[in-house]
Amino acid sequence: MDCKSRDLPLIRYPYTWGKGCGTKIWVHERLDRAICMDNWPSYFDNAELYNFTCFSFDYDLILLVVRKQ
Asked: What is the domain extent for residue 16?
């Protein structure tokens, strides 16, 4: 089923979860996402999705920023 949605790209590091950082078995994935309708960027073309690495947790925080035009 096509929901006419898309994944917003991350501005910084492209992954939001990691395990084993600094080791040979380091795994990182993008688990957390922000999904929008296909036409949403035409209304909010200045929206940006950031992730913030938090070294005390496995997960990074994500923040959607929409600035006034």
From this structure: 5-65
